[in-house]
Each structure stands twice: as structure tokens, then as C-alpha cells.
Amino acid sequence: MAERVSVDVAVVGLGFTGLYAVHRALRDGMTVLGIDAGKEVGGTWYWNRYPGARCDVESVDYSYSFDPELERSWRWSENYSAQPEILAYLQHVADRYELRPHLRLEQRVQTLRREDGVWRLATDDGLEVEARWVVLATGGLSIPHVPDIPGLADFEGQVVLTADWPEEGVDFAGKRVGVFGTGASALQSVPIIARDAAEVTVFQRTANYSIPVRLVSYTEEDLARQREEYAERRRISWSSNAGTPHGALPGDPLTMAPDERDAAFEERWQTGGVLFAKTFATQNADRAVNELARQFVEAKIRGIVKDPVVADDLVPVGYPIGAKRICSDSGYYGVFNHDHVHLVNLRREPVEQVEAHAVRTIDRAFDVDILVFATGFDAMTGALAHLDVVGPRGDTAAELWKDGPFTYLGVAIPGLPNLFTLNGAHTPSVLANMALSAEQQVDFALDLVAFCREQGWTEAEPRPDAARLWTDHVNEVGLSTFMGQTDSWYTGANIAGKPRTVLPYAGGFKTYIDKCQLVKDNGYEGFVLTRDALAATGGDR
Ligand code: NAP
Description:
Elements: E1 3-12, H1 16-27, E2 32-35, H2 44-47, H3 68-73, H4 83-96, E3 103-104, E4 109-115, E5 118-123, E6 127-136, E7 158-161, E8 176-180, H5 184-196, E9 199-204, E10 210-212, H6 220-238, H7 258-271, H8 287-304, H9 308-314, E11 327-329, H10 332-335, E12 341-345, E13 351-354, E14 358-361, E15 365-367, E16 370-373, H11 382-385, E17 388-390, H12 397-400, E18 419-421, H13 434-455, E19 459-462, H14 464-479, H15 509-521, E20 527-530, H16 533-536
Parallel strand pairs: 1-2, 1-6, 2-3, 4-17, 6-18, 7-16, 8-9, 8-16, 9-12, 10-11
Antiparallel strand pairs: 4-5, 5-6, 13-14, 14-15, 19-20
Helix pairs in contact: 1-13, 13-15
């Protein structure tokens, strides 16, 4: 028998964004239910349990800022925390703010219908939720993509996805492992898989740029200093382009002495990780500067990898460095110096099919016991596309977004009133610090809800013309960047048949925050605020 719950706000997805949305709604005195398909909270950090998974933004920054006490009390053990520690942090947040009584786990929301002024949500397990407001915090990278390789269904070994890693782990000892994909997930996991496996074969279609991450275990002194510096660090992050306190190094690389320029690149290489993308301010806009950065990394790859043919294949070609998010790894390039780790360049040697115990390319067969798919996601629009959403006038999410996302500020969609899509398409999110972005998104949406409640409005829906302007702006800004001009999940190019568009907002974190603030200051311009008939007669739900 179906279980029915009625709340002010339903929050779908309990990662960084959803957990904060539940907390904020409770703080505002509303009733709220947070729902997630996972057995635990954590979102991305629950599902992506693959070995080597860790954040690529420093943990002190990749964490909530809404409560200085939380910042002070939580102790990160490393600069770039591994998945178990980030998951433990999010579990701690759920406990510390007493969110758990308001959460339902292992419930996958399937349908959302706006009827009689409320959203009705139904899950696969018979839970029905009625809510005036809905927050979709379903994640930009939550729908895994597995390529349709002929014969895959007949493979008799184990198949695992980095994006849905078995909770019990995977025993690679003595096994022959095939890995598909060479994005961030693969680059983090391959060196660890290679520690135990008898053979590892990486099937690479497109090489990626990766900068080794320099892991630091924090001492008591480090933690004390962080506590001192936290407020300033956050202040800079909130007014930055990417939600972190780090900027570019000074100087124009095109006019400075080559050894000075290389010293700057070396400094960022030694710092490690994605920060290399910001060595110089013009690196992501000026082809000549980008080429200098690219050449520096190419030389590093060639310096690490001993076999020149393998090194050739590992050097990315055909797109600027940083046009796809730079990966951060721990020993990825060097792992190919081991005799039991092989690279197969699928551009030269495409896969024909998977057999019962092997992967066959056009040239040869590779015997494998375990296949790992690190093949990405139906990014940023996938989660909404997988939900059956129907608005009050019969608009469906599928129809509204058939040509790509159509949003106002990324957070709202004409035709779907009182529904917020947070930290997803048309927001800075994946180009910024997801933790701070989560807070900004939730605060914008729930400030609007609070405003409506104060003013007696019961519905908020963006105007189509406002959404048109925002969508065009996102595309225009995006297409002017290397990211927007490059095939990747940022542009929908990784999923066959997906409309080619620019998914995240590339205008910068601070610019976006300012735009949202302006909309708020102008009484939520671009939104139509109304009062439904029942509320107008004093009825309540
Ligand atoms: P991804 O970057 O989309 O990489 C997917 C990989 O699978 C690509 O190398 C892709 O090749 C390959 N692939 C897809 N279909 C294939 C096929 N049929 N045959 C062979 N290869 C195929 O996915 P991801 O590595 O999971 O990373 C996604 C995003 O998640 C990252 O960009 C990052 O934002 C985030 N992430 C962050 C971290 C972190 O460090 N914090 C870790 C993991 C993920 P093509 O390029 O040729 O399509």
C-alpha cells in the first residue's frame, strides 16, 4: 500500500545541494522531505566509490561555509580528501543538523505531477509525496553512461561502473582487468587497480590532460592555520570566478622570459591538480598561451612515460588544455611504465566486440576477467530527462528540453512552477566549487520561497522571455570559450543524439551570483508570482 507524505518542500537528491536544501528549509520553519535513491546520503560521493576517488578542489574549500562552527570542528586529514572522508563529512552534516528524520533513502523518484497547486511525487517503492515546492538536487553527473559495445551482454566476467561501484569493493588480485574510459574517474582509479591486478589494459579513445595531485596529510599546525584563515579564504572564494581562493600567477607569458614562464608552469605543476588550468589568466582564452601550457604538459608526459609510442598515445591532441576539465591523478602516466599495464589506442585500433572472456579490437583480442567502465555521464540534463515531469498545463520536462536545457538562471523552467533545478545546467556548478555553488543555489531558491510565503504568493514561475534571454546568454558565453568549442560532456557531445549545446554557465561564479542577486533585489524580476484560488480563499495545504 502506498505511503503518503505531505510537506512544504520536497528535495530530490541528497548530495551537497540536497542536504543543504533540507537544512535550510527546516531553518526556515518549513516541513521538508529529502529523498534519495542511495542507501546513504552523499550523492556523487555515495555512488562513486571507486578506488582512488577524491576531490580535485581542496577539501577546506570543497565544504560547506554556512556554519563557521562546522568549518572549525571538522578535521580534514588531507588536502584533497578521498571519497570515504567526503562521504563521512556529508553523513556528519546529516547527523549534526538532525536532518535524518526528514530523509527517505532507497527511494527513487520517478514521476512528478503538478496538480491543484501542488507537486505530487511518486517513487519506485510506493512513496507518494505532496509538496508545494520541489527542489531537484539530482546532480549534474548522476546518470552513468555505458557505451553500447557489441557483445557486452555476453561477457561472462565481472562488469563494474566507477559511477556505481559495488559497496563490497572489487577484488582485483591476480585478475586481468580492462578499463574503458580515460576521464578523471579512470585516471584516478587505474593506478590503484594496477597495484593488485595481474594485467590492466586501458582502452583509450581520447587522451586527457592530467596534472599529478600533491597529497598532503594535515598536521595539527596546518589545521590551526586553516581555522585562522578560513574566513578570509571564503571571502575570496565567494568573489572569485570559480569559487576557490586561488587565482592566476602574475605576468604575461607571451612577453616574459621563457625560463620565467616555465618556472611559473613548474610552480603550478608542483602545486598539482586542476590549478594548473589557471597558471596564467589568459590561458583559457588565448590560443598562444594555451599552446605554451599544453607544450609544458606534453614534455612532462614524455618525461614520465618511458615507451615513446605509449607516450605519443597519452599526449592529448586536437583540443586546448583546459577545454575539458583537467584531471588530477596519483601516478597515472607512470603506471604505464609497468609491464603489466597496457594502453590500447582505440583511434588506431577500434574495438570490434566484447566476447565471453575478452575484448576484441580489429587487430587482436585481450583476455579480461573484469571490465571497468569509467565512461562518463549523461551530464547535467540526464537526471531531469530520466524523470517523468508534467507541469500544470501539461508541459513535460522532456518536451521543454528537447533542444537542450531552457532555463531561467539555471534554477527554474517556464511551464514547471515551484520547481527548482539546482547546481545543474546553465549554472556555474561544475565549472566552480560545487560546495559553495550548492549553498548559493539553495539560498537563491529558498529565499524566493520565503519571499513568496511572506507576500502571500503561492506560485513562482519564470517567464519564457526571461528564460530565452538567459539561455541565449549561456550559449553565447559558452560558445566563446574553448570549453564550448570542444566535444565533451560539457557540450553534450558524449551522448549520441543529445542536442549539442553548452551546458554549464561559463560567465564566472561571481558574475552569476551578482546576476541572481540583481534578480532578487528587483523583486524576482523574470518570475511571475501568483496566488492560487485555494490560498486566495484562505484554504491551506
Ligand atoms: P568523462 O570525463 O566523461 O570520461 C569518460 C571517458 O569515457 C572518456 O575518456 C570517453 O572518451 C570514454 N568513453 C566513452 N565512451 C567510450 C567508448 N565507447 N569507448 C571508449 N571510451 C569511451 O567521465 P568521468 O571520468 O567520470 O569524469 C566526468 C567528470 O566528473 C569530470 O570531468 C569531473 O568534472 C568529474 N570528476 C571529478 C573527479 C575529481 O577529481 N574530483 C573525479 C572523477 C570525475 P571520449 O573522450 O573519446 O568520449
